[in-house]
Amino acid sequence: MDFESLFTQICHDLEKSGHVKEISTRFSTCSTDAQRISFVLALDSVRARFQEPLSLAKRAISTPCKSQELSTSHRVEGNNYYQKKLNWKAISSYNRSLLVGEGEALALAYANRSAVFHDTSDWLHSLRDIQLAFDHGYPKHLEYKLRERQGNCWLQLGHVRQAFISFNLARNLLLVTTTNAQQSHKDKLISINSKIVKLGDDANPTIGVSESNESAAASIERQVIKKRRTAPDLNRDSNALLPAASTSIELTDSDDRGRCLVATEDIQIGTTVIVEKALASILLEEFKESHCHHCLHWTPGPVPCHQCSQVGFCSTLCRDEAWASYHQSECGLTDSLHGTNVGRHGLLAVRTVLKVGRQRIMDVASEDDGCNPAGGELYDSTDYGRTIHRLVGNTARRSVADLFRRAVMAVYLTSLIQQQRDGKEDDPDEILATAVLQLIQSYPCNAHEISHLAFPLPGTPSGPDLPSTLQQIRLCEIGAAAMPVLSLINHSCDPNVVRDCYGDVIAVKAIRRIARGDEILDNYGYHYATHDKKERQLKLSQQYYFRCNCLACAQDWPRYEDAPKLVDRPELYHPIHRDIGNFSSLSSGSCYPDGPAHLEESTRLFIGYLEAMDSDASIHLPVQEYSMAQEVLKHCWALSATLSPHLAVVV
Ligand SMILES: C[S@@+](CC[C@H](N)C(=O)[O-])C[C@H]1O[C@@H](n2cnc3c(N)ncnc32)[C@H](O)[C@@H]1O
């Protein structure tokens, strides 16, 4: 149930009771989040209003969400698309069939999806789906088909022995099938025999068939995981006190903006200074069919959760890791949680407490001395207590009404995740609710967006006949993440670093020259080139509670379109415009995977232009060409981080 409606009802109840003023005065005397939670928990009107949504959530959790019938209908829809060669649409229907499938329906959907992957030369995903079809009890009398497909995939991947094993299994199965008198079976047998003969004696394996198949399944899974784009390495050794960052930066304190990161040496444009994996992350609901619920990487063929029909994973490894870590506590509740409409920060807060676990949260609460030291001690991204727990929440600057609303939200979310299948009635856990309250204050000022480039796909209105240019590629927000080290970076409307996402890992690169001693500055979504000063200042003060004093604000720089051009420097102006024109007209064909030589070339070119402008004392920002060169560079990096055509929402 939607939290805002619930909260409005609670406020009405309080007004009707005539106690609003008194409650507000008493609530304003609470000085800690623990006190705020205890206060809300003691209000009968709040508990009473929670009863209905909580029993609905409990019912949802115990309602079976897998359905053979629904799975079959999505599969049949997929088969129709497949026959019409609408491969992406077929995959999308099979994905849906798999999310809701169980038993044989699951096996059949995996098998059918493997056919599309096979036909689109995605041998690895085809092999993986074939294996999963067997694991879920694919009918024996049809197995020969999958074995032959499996043999083809192995062959294409250069694994001749595995191909030989699969073709032999296909032949043996065909020989014993009852209908082998049919002509089609005979033809198939001849074709498989000829494949086996072609492979020759060299391929004849010495190891047992079942043993090799088992290790093959593990190796397929490893290969699927290896296909994910990985972040670049840090430019230097990792900083001993700040392991996600390089020794080129360190954590310190500033007079007016709290903790900050500064350069310990001159940093060149393009240098990777931070590579951090999220302590916790969430995927937005609309991407559940195209991205992994756990690592947030794009996947053409998600593997569903064993129990619920709401989430998919890029691999069985991610599925098992998520289950062991947090998914078993939220399984069946994801629809109820999304239904609260509390937004990404509320959902991320819930995910964080589930992932960290009650015991650790309790330990951290008891150790908390309220200090927030900068530097001098280890700041490890995996350590909730020393990092995420201590993020700036701007509590003192929040109004009583804002804190009350958040405290009620924290209790509601905590009560939801405490709903159990066994029907036990638990009182809301104060420790967890307090942690959630702290996070829903700090995340709006600290959490990071996870984004992914979306390409138009063949078969969508914008492709494939039209060359899809870079303008058609959109940066989509697909999730949110808690990144402890990135959360130490302060804002500038003219930042010197940018972020690139590799699933739930973010790499931070210099987009300007950074001199030793300079602060590392990111942009919180309000850049001088795109938003004017008034709007920036307003948004930053509303969400982040500070007044920006960066150079762009101090000198009130014009936005991009009103900034001067470098016309009096033809030796830079002309080549920059020429190369931007060349870059923009690149077709998607050359942007797509695995041969991004032109991206490296463009990256090198535009770093060169930015270096030239940075080192020329006669060029003063803002300058249009500087912004343009930065934009191209950001685009090159984002493309290199994604580079996979995918099913996400596009244009
Ligand atoms: C993501 S945190 C940055 C790290 C923070 N300084 C700390 O001590 O943890 C965001 C908060 O830092 C402060 N901040 C960020 N940029 C700032 C700036 N340019 N000027 C003043 N305060 C800033 C604001 O309090 C903001 O809510």
Automatic annotation (TrEMBL):
<keyword id="KW-0863">Zinc-finger</keyword>
<dbReference type="GO" id="GO:0005634">
    <property type="term" value="C:nucleus"/>
</dbReference>
<dbReference type="GO" id="GO:0042826">
    <property type="term" value="F:histone deacetylase binding"/>
</dbReference>
<dbReference type="Pfam" id="PF00856">
    <property type="entry name" value="SET"/>
</dbReference>
<protein>
    <recommendedName>
        <fullName>Protein-lysine N-methyltransferase SMYD4</fullName>
    </recommendedName>
</protein>
<keyword id="KW-0949">S-adenosyl-L-methionine</keyword>
<dbReference type="GO" id="GO:0005737">
    <property type="term" value="C:cytoplasm"/>
</dbReference>
<dbReference type="InterPro" id="IPR046341">
    <property type="entry name" value="SET_dom_sf"/>
</dbReference>
<dbReference type="Pfam" id="PF01753">
    <property type="entry name" value="zf-MYND"/>
</dbReference>
<dbReference type="InterPro" id="IPR011990">
    <property type="entry name" value="TPR-like_helical_dom_sf"/>
</dbReference>
<dbReference type="InterPro" id="IPR044421">
    <property type="entry name" value="SMYD4_SET"/>
</dbReference>
<keyword id="KW-0808">Transferase</keyword>
<comment type="function">
    <text>Protein-lysine N-methyltransferase. Monomethylates PRMT5, modulating its transcriptional activity. May also act as a histone methyltransferase. Plays a critical role in cardiac development. Acts as a key epigenetic regulator of gene expression during cardiac development via its dual activities as a methyltransferase and negative regulator of HDAC1.</text>
</comment>
<dbReference type="GO" id="GO:0008170">
    <property type="term" value="F:N-methyltransferase activity"/>
</dbReference>
<dbReference type="InterPro" id="IPR001214">
    <property type="entry name" value="SET_dom"/>
</dbReference>
<dbReference type="GO" id="GO:0032259">
    <property type="term" value="P:methylation"/>
</dbReference>
<keyword id="KW-0862">Zinc</keyword>
<dbReference type="GO" id="GO:0008270">
    <property type="term" value="F:zinc ion binding"/>
</dbReference>
<feature type="domain" description="SET">
    <location>
        <begin position="247"/>
        <end position="525"/>
    </location>
</feature>
<feature type="domain" description="MYND-type">
    <location>
        <begin position="292"/>
        <end position="331"/>
    </location>
</feature>
<keyword id="KW-0489">Methyltransferase</keyword>
<dbReference type="InterPro" id="IPR052097">
    <property type="entry name" value="SET-MYND_domain_protein"/>
</dbReference>
<keyword id="KW-0479">Metal-binding</keyword>
<dbReference type="InterPro" id="IPR002893">
    <property type="entry name" value="Znf_MYND"/>
</dbReference>
<dbReference type="GO" id="GO:0008757">
    <property type="term" value="F:S-adenosylmethionine-dependent methyltransferase activity"/>
</dbReference>
<dbReference type="GO" id="GO:0008276">
    <property type="term" value="F:protein methyltransferase activity"/>
</dbReference>
